Amino acid sequence: MTTSISGRILHAGSVTAPVLVLDEALSMWGGLDPKTGRILDRQHPQSGAVMAGSIVAMPGSRGSSGTPGVLGEALRNGVGPLGLILTKPDINLIAGAVVAEALYGCSCPVTVVSSDEFDALRTGSVVTLGDYDAERREQ
């Protein structure tokens, strides 16, 4: 069963994929391997998990202004998240998604949802993120 996620679209795009739920914010700089998509931060609850092939749901990123570069590189390498679901806007994650699309043609939609919707997500469940207005405009 696929669940459609609606929320505030911060970076448009459409994707359907399994979700990887991160319990805590992640520092991409030093916390994500942009060559493999694996979470490297040994202190993170999902250390060792791989983002590739998943929509990643997380509260946000932690810290570094290096986040856009690491996320963009992971997307360029095809191992970044297929989409992001956040509980609050995160300029570093949005910038990474925007730059990766502009430079490399890699889509990574970013959506903000309520805490209740976020808490209902489960790793492995399949969700659809979509810019339905854009789809209507293309028809």
What does this entry show, briefly?
The chain is α/β, with parallel strands linked by helices and 139 residues long. The chain has helices at residues 67-76, 91-104, 115-120, 132-138, and strands spanning 2-5, 8-11, 15-21, 55-57, 83-86, 110-112, 126-129. It has a single domain (2-138), classed as Glucose Oxidase, domain 1 (3-Layer(bba) Sandwich), CATH 3.50.30.10.
Give a verbal description of the structure.
By secondary structure, the chain is of the alpha/beta class. The chain has a single domain, classed as Glucose Oxidase, domain 1. It has helices at about 65-75, 90-105, 115-120, 130-139; strands at about 1-5, 10, 15-20, 55, 85, 110, 125-130. A seven-stranded mixed beta sheet has the order 1-7-3-4-5-6-2. α1 (about 65-75) runs parallel beside α2 (about 90-105). The protein is globular and about 35 Å long. Residues about 135-139 have low confidence and may be disordered.
